[in-house]
Amino acid sequence: MSSSNPQGLQAFPDELSERKAWLEPFDWYREMRDQAPVRYDPVRHVWDVFRYDDVKTILADDERFSVSPRNADGFQEPEGEEAGVMLDTMLLQDPPRHDELRGVVDDEFSPRSIRELEPRIRELTTELLDEILDNGDEIDLVEEFAYPLPVIVIAELLGVPAEDRDQFKTWSDAIVSAASEDENTEEFYERQGEMRQEMAFYFVQLMEDRRENPQDDLISTLVNAEIDGDPLSHREILGTCILLLVAGNITTTNLITNAMRCFDEDDTFDELAGDDKALTTAIEEVLRYRSPVQAMTRVAMEDVTIGGETIEEGDRISVWMGSANRDERKFDDADEFRADRVPNQHLGFGYSTHYCLGAPLARLEAKVALSELFSRVSNITIPETTLEPTRSSFIYGVDSLPIRFERE
Fold it and tell me: What pTM was computed for the model?
């Protein structure tokens, strides 16, 4: 891994290098599950794993498959504190440190704590919809609704001033984006590094303020937390702030947007309106059918055999949850969206130790957002448009999604 790409974000496989292919990668997934369920990509120097059982096995085994890129062959420690700060987050830490860091904020993201946020999330959703629905019969769902709502929520939880929220999108997009096919890679990573430095400087200022003036927010929790009597390191606090910012809005934005695409394709708007139980089940199917996170990375800690292939110690692995969730060996009619699918053991939020901390929050935000939207509008349609996929090697969504409707 080069120092210009300190987070180890995977480059696209050649098969997905065009934006149109990343918009609908599912035919390629099916081909790989059938013909090369575990394959080595010599261009990316990565093993790709596509079938449900293999993906789940790797995600569940922390001893043989590490999340830390430091364990990968050829790893180089990135230069500068800001460049490598994400390496010290729970996202890229193995147990036991992962569990200790996660334990600091686990209570705030427990299902019980998240349920208590529902009235406030519904209030924020109502305010946002009242504002944007007065402007006509068409909105850009991403720009005007699916992006702002989760940013407002995670900003409140972190303790970020309301006037700074807009800057979050620029930083978040920079963290998860990948270079486009016609973009100079070095220039891209240099610009991405500048964004990381800006964001790090911003959070350092907030951290210093909360040490002096603690409040009822996550940043205060982090700067005052101790593990076995020792405070968290500066990089651990900073990295966790950045992780919560990015994960707290990018995933939910794409979950809401992907849901609208699925409901439009399946023509299920009317049957979901006014039925929160059916909507909750349908959101689980969205997480399977168009997962906001399509892939995760692991490093082999010893020589292992998966799918008849020997993966050597130090080799990097991309586990494709987006493919696992379409595996016909696990799901009946896997390439069909079934809003009432039960049971639904998808891997949309990962699995086991590194199961997404923010999963309860993302589910609640999506349910409230869609429920409130459906209560205010009818006859929702997505006009003919050219969709542009989010340019990331693991985040799956679209940059813009116009919707038309009639006001109730």
Answer: 0.91
Q: Tell me which residue of 170, 326, 157, 173 sits closest to 244, measured CA to CA.
A: 157
Q: Of 211, 215, 206, 203, whose CA–CA distance to 239 is shortest?
A: 203
The residue behind tokens 């790989």 is 32
Any idea of the CA torsion for 139, 158, 197, 69, to the nearest 10 degrees?
-100
3-state secondary structure 309-345: EEECCCCEEEEEHHHHCCCCCCCCCCCCCCCCCCCCC
- Bridge partners of residue 38, in order along the sequence: 49
Indicate the pLDDT class of residue 83, thresholds 50, 70 and 90.
low
Whose CA is closest to 316, among 47, 64, 12? 47
* Residue 271 to residue 326: CA distance in whole angstroms: 24
27 vs 80, more confident = 27
The C-alpha atoms of residue 135 and residue 374 are separated, in whole angstroms, by 17
Confidence label for 169 from pLDDT (cuts 50, 70 and 90): low
Maximum pairwise Cα distance, the chain: 60
The CA-atom distances, in angstroms, between 370 and each of 245, 274, 275, 293 are 22, 10, 11, 20
